Amino acid sequence: MARVSLLQAIKVVKGTIHSYIANRPMVVSYEVTLSCNCNCRHCDLGGFVKDEKQATPEEYGDIARCLKPLAVQISGGEPLLRKDIAAIVKAIRQAGPEYAILVTNGWLLNESRYLRLREAGVSQFSVSLDFPDERHDDFRRRPGLYKRLEQTVPGLAKLGFRDIILNTAITKANVREILPLARKAADWGVDISYSAYTALRTENEDYCLNSTDDLETLRRAIDDLMTLKKQGTYVANPELTLRDTLKFFEHGYMPNCKAGIKFLVVMPDGSLIPCSLHRQKYATRKEMIEGFSRDNRCSSCYVAIRSYSEMSLRNHARNLPKYVRQMILH
How many domains does the structure of the chain reveal? Predict the structure, then answer.
């Protein structure tokens, strides 16, 4: 979590409770472009979209005022490809969300852009890292990416804002790197979060954890992560979320998806979709709930936005003291 005041922490706590009471989305993800300067093996995006219809910063802000989410995620594709990304962040934050996370592969991140985006309203920078070394380049199909992150991220961390977090999608390819990735985050002076790979994007099941050995490796890694967390290495995931991630891989599904209700996605043109894996477009959230969410039986993912937004109010309450402490101290 970024360093914020006690007042801001209280606002987040109150917003969490209010989102449940008012049945508003916990998180809205803005995919501000589907273009990307990487071509990741676990993703269906990659390359540049020609003549992409893109909403203006003001239009994105209007959507935020209408949906009234507690938090927003600004992603893509690669959001830093948008030349007006700082204006987008500013317009969305001025519309009311208490927290804004920018998700990036980090290729275009530098100190000046980082500081400008912080000033615009980014609360947390989420930088993707799949391997703790140059294997990351091959997985993202971007030569030199790991070296660039190795040069950039520690330097930004030394500025002292404590608002950078590495994010890792757990796959069959990197399940044995979970602990080394956590140690790499500690070496760089940043935090780390994990989520589950799903084959829904690419229909490629080669990266799914499906063997007894894979699952036991993940089980041990989660135990070790909890030990590291107690020792001071900041792993962002609550233990419950990591245990549910293991259950997702064990069973191959996670029921009761709340896409369109607890979370949803805004496309580059401003249209609404339930999630990044179901891209039917809707004009309003009400239309989405009636046309998709009420009869949604999809259970094929447990990605980060889902795992956090679907936590029960009771489990959020159990973690609220930790959230507040982390926001004040980090």
Answer: 1
